[in-house]
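Reading a protein record of the kind used here takes only a little practice. To see the layout at work, look at the sequence and tokens printed below.
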Amino acid sequence: MAKDDFMLVKKMVNYLEDKKGEDILVLEVKDITLICNYFILVTGTNPTHIQALAESLVENLKENEDLKPMNYEGVKKGEWVLLDYGSVVVHIFDGEARKFYNLERLWGEAKEVEVEKG
């Protein structure tokens, strides 16, 4: 299952990069929490961009992978969107919210994972 999860992460990162998501970070959290296996953190430039990132990711995963998020929060406000795909949770932030919540520090024990384009 971990290999399948990583393939999903790679596809998600590629979709986010295609929509100009910034500062994308993948954290492997499977050894430190039961919530999921991976977090993807990405920054959008403004509420419209954040909404577009979320909507594009949801649409691409539904169309190409037949996947729908189990939970989908924060899209209307456009400061912090959470997309829960079970084994992978995507956090799309504006710059201020990302600095304020600082999930990188909160989940500091997590392993950073490099994802190559393509």
Summary: The mean pLDDT is 94.
